[in-house]
Amino acid sequence: MITVTFEGADGSRITTQARPGMTLMEAARAASVPGILAECGGACSCSTCHVYVAPDFFDLLEPAGEMEVDLLDFAWEPDPARSRLSCQIVLSEALDGLVARVPERQG
């Protein structure tokens, strides 16, 4: 299992376990993380699962695809150095301990 921590805009933290191969969005939904709306259910057609990935983990992620980059333009206060859509982050053992901050609001 992979441990991931979601940090709310208010500083609250939810730590959960996920199986390799799950997306970060699926882990957030399974843990009922507030602020991860995921309105499209992971189809990469909205930006309501936007997160800020901790710098220690950002470079371990697969690069964002063109569709994700385009959708991040619609995210709330995107940060080019840390913003990703959680539906596009596939969890692996290399990401064990990942920390993702949920923005103050989505979209």
Q: Which key terms come to mind for this protein?
A:
107 residues; alpha+beta; Ubiquitin-like (UB roll); five-stranded mixed beta sheet; 3 helices; 17% helix; globular; electron transfer activity; iron; Adrenodoxin_Fe-S_BS; iron-sulfur; 2Fe-2S
The general outline is globular
C-alpha Rg (nearest Å): 12 Å
Fraction of residues in helix: 10-25%
CATH class: Alpha Beta
The mean pLDDT is 96
> Which stretches of 5+ consecutive residues score pLDDT under 50?
none
- Strand segment tally: 5
Structural class by helix and strand composition: alpha+beta
Strand count, sense and closure of the main sheet? 5 strands, mixed
For CATH, the homologous superfamily is named as Beta-grasp domain
How many discrete structural domains? 1
> CATH topology, anyone?
Ubiquitin-like (UB roll)
Portion in beta strands:
15-25%
Please list the strands of the largest sheet in the order they lie side by side. Answer: 2-1-5-3-4
CATH architecture tag: Roll
Distance between the termini: 31 Å
- One letter per element, helices H and strands E, the order comes to EEHEHHEE
Q: Please, how many helices?
A: 3
